[in-house]
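Session log. Operator J.P. requested a structure for one protein chain; no other inputs attached. Running the standard single-chain path with token output.
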Amino acid sequence: MIRLFLVLVLLLSGIQSALACSRDPSLPELTDEDLFRAASAVFHGRIYKTEEALDAIGPDGKPMPIVVGTFHLKEVFKGRPPEDRMVRGPTPGPGNCGLPLMVGLDYVFFLTEESGPFVLWTNGSRAYFNLDAAEPKQFLEKLRALK
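Structure written below.
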């Protein structure tokens, strides 16, 4: 139980490089501006409901469990958030690039044409426990300036 908690804390605090999901090390690190340009939608939402579902996302097309998170929309920085106010992500696990969707947390979602409503930290999405902390405040201000 303690290990699971520590993994979630690391993931949610933005220390993604420690995860098994990796990117090509020969490519330059993408900046927030790069991720913003690549996204079709960037918005702030607060998850208020999650549930497990099955979706045909496996490499063989077989249904795999995912988490569906329903959010209250707080602010839009770019594009159009999903009209149904739902995002999707893999169930938490090593190496899947997903951002765990948890009730009560605030998220900045970066969705791309390729990912659709599927949340991946590699696209720039991130979660925050405390929006009053300096880092989320600075990040939200940066996104407002990019509008």
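Operator note: The beta strands are 41-55, 64-78, 86-90, 106-111, 126-128.
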